[in-house]
Amino acid sequence: MTIEAIFIDDGGVMNDNQRRGQQWRPLISDYFAPKYGGEKENWMKANTYAMSFVMDELNQIMKNDSEISHEYYINLEYKIWTEKMFEYMDLTPPPKDQYKKLNLDVDNLIIPQIQSAYPGIVECIKNLSKKFTLHTASDQT
Questions:
Q1: What is the spatial distance between Cα 58 and Cα 117, in angstroms, rounded to a whole number?
Q2: CA separation, residue 138 to residues 17, 46, 135 (Å)
Q3: Measuring CA to CA, which residue among 77, 72, 74, 26 is closest to residue 50?
């Protein structure tokens, strides 16, 4: 048997989720507070609140062994996260047709600023990519 592809998880394998979360929350507040109002500290709490609902939904999908497309799940995640963030802040969320853009804008702004990769992982991935097709086994777009 020949191994041709490897699936590597992002959180906990390539990146330290604890370090990422500690950096993510303040950056979330830096994005949302000036744009939508509210205290930065509350936006950090809103993100934690919203992510608990996202994770509950993911766990429910996995528990039910639901076969859904990645696109369906990502759009569901965008919806839940956005609505719960704004619910926590007691603000009206943007129109539903803007959820995906909002989420992608946040990711594109914040992800490049996060420093959470495990030491040596970049070199390891580069070496593996010379021998195998690599995929992430995470809910990333």
A1: 24
A2: 12, 23, 9
A3: 77
Q: Is residue 10 part of a domain?
A: no
Q: What is the DSSP letter of 15?
A: B
Express each pLDDT in 28-59 by its tens digit. 999 999 999 999 999 999 999 999 999 898 88
Range of the domain at 31: 17-116
Q: What stretches of the chain show up as alpha helix (H) in DSSP?
A: 17-36, 40-63, 70-89, 99-110, 121-129
Q: Quote the CA–CA distance of 59 and 85 in Å, as a whole number.
A: 19
Q: Which two tokens stand for residue 126?
A: 């580069």
Residue 27 CB burial class (10 angstroms; 0-12, 13-18, ≥19):
middle
Q: Do 8 and 14 form a contact (C-beta atoms < 8 A)?
A: yes
* Alpha-carbon span 113 to 54, nearest angstrom: 23
Single pTM value for the model: 0.81
Find residue 135's DSSP bridge partners: 7
Q: What is the DSSP letter of 1?
A: -
Report the domain count for the chain.
1
Domain presence at residue 86? yes
Give strand pairing partners of 15.
Answer: 11, 117
